[in-house]
Amino acid sequence: MPVKTDELTEELKHHLVAAREIAAKAEADNDRDFTDAERAQVAEHMAKAKEAKEGLEKAKATNTMRQALADLGDGVELNEKSGERRTPSGLVVPTTGKSLGEHFTESAEYAGLMSQAPRGGFGAKSRVQSLPVGYKSLVTGTSDTSAGAWVTNDYLGQRVGLDLFQRPLRLRDVVTNGTTTSDTVEYVRITSTTNNAAPVAEATSSAAPTAPASVPGALVNNAGGGYKPESALAAAKVTTPVRTIAHWIPITKRALSDASQIRTLIDSFLRYGLEEELEDQMIAGDGTGENFDGLGNVSGVQAQAWDTNALTTLRKAKTKVRTVGRSVANAYLLNPADLETVDLLQDNEGRFYFGGPAGVGSASVLWGLPVIETEAVPAGTGYVGDFRKAILWDREQASITVTDSHADFFIRNLVAILAEMRAAFGILQPSAFVEVDLTA
């Protein structure tokens, strides 16, 4: 039996009107607040209105579903041959015992569709073979005078970073990095140490030292005086100026504007150039002009001569850092050619010490120390030492400046791109480093 929606509609309307009348009364009375009784009445009417609305929505949905079911049932025709039931709209109601797919493939509509298919099936390919003919001109994609004229090269530009074309710079990783706010750095360099510490017996005599006549001005300690031995520490005050490393390239404004990649490439290339020169100066700077006092030219650095083979020589150099320099080495510096020599060393049975061509790589660790491979070290020479006792002071880190104020660049639409940095370098204890002769 259909649900009556008229009653629910009237009930909803009644409660909403009643609540609105209470609110209008309060508004007319100087827009006062509801009394407690009015507030309770409004709340009750709103609750019943909400309940009536929900009932009305459910009643409408129920009536809609009942009508749809009635429509489906009216006029259903029974196909005596197939046993299927069909509604006036064409909806097939399968009977039990057959799947929906079976009803579809056995239907008259499916039979009519398949009768129109070429050779009884859709998707069948038809092929027409023409008679052989002769061709005056063959269109080919390999010729610039044929279809190849429309084929353009796929230009990919720079696919990898510029750093893949530059040598790795790792010396900064092992030295002490500092900063300065001046154009000159003054520091103390330890040139030698003498440790005479020894056990001392308690004094048994209070006699003063004597001055022998045979040696004027000399004093001789009396036996049993309990004198303590004297040690020595020699130091020197060293002043090193902050040096400027710089270079620049010219470029047209059009190239800078149109080629978006070129900005990154220039920036990377110029900055890298500063760091490469800095590493060269830290090792090979000769101290003249604007050059650094590099490790290879600082007085007091120890030397290790060639001994038997490269491995033996390098190991003995490490020992000197410990015993003479009283320091703990933290890295080797080797030229790529010398590292190659180490990699190719073999035992008496022809086996490579460091894995050979099928190994995991070169001697990146040698005698327990990391190896820094750098062209800044000349071939035939190596260094080992405590690089924490070498300090790089940054005054101004690398910067890039662009201007058209150089020469007549303004009227020629040219710009100068300048990269520069300022830094100073110093060795605190030269004896903590050993220069190794790797020439057999």
Q: Describe it for me?
A:
The chain has nine helices and 15 strands. It is of the alpha+beta class. It folds into three domains: 69 residues; 41 residues, no CATH class; 239 residues, 2-Layer Sandwich (Major capsid protein gp5 fold), CATH 3.30.2400.10. The strands form four sheets. The chain has a six-stranded mixed sheet. A four-stranded mixed sheet has the order 4-13-14-7. Strand 10 and strand 11 form a beta hairpin. Helix 1 runs antiparallel to helix 2. It is elongated and about 140 Å long.
Task: Provide a brief overview of the structure.
By secondary structure, the protein is of the alpha+beta class. The protein folds into three domains: about 5-75; about 80-120, no CATH class; about 165-195 and about 230-435, Major capsid protein gp5 (Major capsid protein gp5 fold). It has helices spanning about 5-30, 35-75, 100-105, 110-115, 255-260, 260-285, 310-325, 335-345, 410; strands at about 75-80, 85, 90-95, 175-180, 185-195, 230-240, 245-250, 300-305, 330-335, 365, 370-375, 380-385, 390-405, 415-425, 435.
- C-alpha-based Rg, rounded: 49 Å
Low-confidence stretches: none
CATH superfamily of the largest domain: Major capsid protein gp5
Kindly report the spatial arrangement of strands forming the biggest sheet. Answer: 8-15-12-9-11-10
CATH architecture of the largest domain, by name, is 2-Layer Sandwich
Proportion of residues in extended strands: 15-25%
Terminal CA distance = 113 Å
Number of strands: 15
**Roughly what percent helix?**
25-40%
Order of helices and strands: HHEEEHHEEEEHHEHEHEEEEHEE
The top level CATH class name of the largest domain: Alpha Beta
